[in-house]
Write a structure and sequence with these properties.
By secondary structure, the chain is α/β, with parallel strands linked by helices. The chain is built from nine helices and nine strands. It is globular, with a radius of gyration of 18 Å. The structure holds adenosine-5'-diphosphate (ADP) and deoxycytidine diphosphate. It comes from Mortierella hygrophila.
């Protein structure tokens, strides 16, 4: 990113999952982005955050870190008798995110993910972690532990408002609008045709050099659909569109198009909120 534009100023925001902070009375503008796998959530969320000068939290990274921690200890996430061991790991693991924003609006920000201080950004995106992550995310106590860590991180963001000048927060996942940020100022539910999502995911794997030999679009599509089904039908905070969320189908949109649509909606709501607060004074 920096090498493409020498004049580009990098803005780094680091989060830790175990901060000691107090939530401020006034909170930053919150954008919740949910949706099925590979619908474009994290790409869109990061770019929206960059355009608006907001913070960004990728909650899927937390479930991926817990899955990686379990697999590294030889625990099989598909074996239900291992659920309490995985829950203990979810509680004891330290998860950190570091997002590097750029002042060039078209450059994609990058998020580094740390598990117990080790950079696991690539390891958490492997096929093995992706295969098991939905089973891990379905374990109730794992969700409780992650929810606490995510809320702590969100509170850190709120407490830094004013110091960092970042006046808002964008969070993406599966239960952001329904559970994590139920009072978010804007809730987006991103969807896209599963074939389109599979093609995009395959392209992304090929670009990053992590595409496994022989992996084809049908296999990726089936895996995405299997994970969506698990995420939608689990008991603990399943993937669903919040009643007050705006659905955005990205199948025929460009990344810039979907980012523009959300940024414009944030501006519209901020304007409406400030005119209603000034008329009530
Ligand atoms: N409108 C779009 N057109 C083309 N590619 C897209 C679009 N939206 C997202 N992508 C690409 O699709 C892939 C999956 O997006 P990602 O943001 O990782 O999804 P999610 O966070 O929902 O899993 C990424 O490679 C991203 O660049
Ligand atoms: N808030 C969240 C975020 C992710 N999850 C689960 C659901 C997904 O299968 C995994 C991984 O999420 P992630 O967003 O990284 O996955 P994709 O990039 O969409 O494939 O975690 C969740 O249950 N709740």
């Amino acid at each position: 990113m920096a090498s493409r534009n020498i004049a580009t100023r990098l803005i780094t925001r680091t989060f830790s999952s175990s901060p000691k902070v107090t939530q401020k009375a006034t909170r930053p503008f919150q954008v919740a982005i949910d949706g099925p796998a590979a619908s474009g959530k994290s790409t869109t969320a990061k770019m929206v955050a960059q355009r608006l000068g907001f913070d960004y939290i990728d909650t899927g990274a937390f479930y991926r870190c817990v899955t990686l921690a379990a697999l590294s200890k030889g625990i099989d996430p598909s074996n239900q008798s291992q659920a309490s061991q995985i829950s203990n790991l979810a509680q004891s693991s330290h998860i950190g995110l570091k997002t590097v924003f750029s002042t060039s609006p078209s450059s994609l920000p990058t998020t580094r993910v740390f598990l117990d201080k080790k950079d696991v950004s690539s390891e958490i995106r492997t096929g093995t972690v992706s295969k098991h992550v939905s089973a891990v995310a379905a374990i109730g106590p794992v969700r409780e532990a992650v929810l606490q860590k995510v809320r702590d991180m969100g509170a850190t963001s709120a407490s830094q408002e004013g110091n960092s000048g970042r006046a808002g927060l964008v969070m993406d996942g599966r239960d952001i609008g329904t559970v994590v940020l139920p009072n978010a100022d804007l809730k987006i539910f991103l969807v896209a045709d599963s074939r389109v999502r599979a093609e995009r995911r395959l392209q992304e794997l090929a670009k990053s050099g992590s595409k496994e030999e022989g992996l084809d679009v049908e296999t990726v599509q089936k895996d995405l659909e299997r994970r969506d089904e698990l995420d939608r039908t689990r008991k603990a905070s399943p993937l669903r569109k919040a009643d007050d969320a705006v659905e955005l189908d990205t199948s025929h949109l460009t990344i810039e198009g979907q980012v523009d649509a959300i940024v414009q909606e944030v501006h519209r709501r901020q304007k409406a909120a400030s005119s209603s607060s000034s008329s009530s004074q």
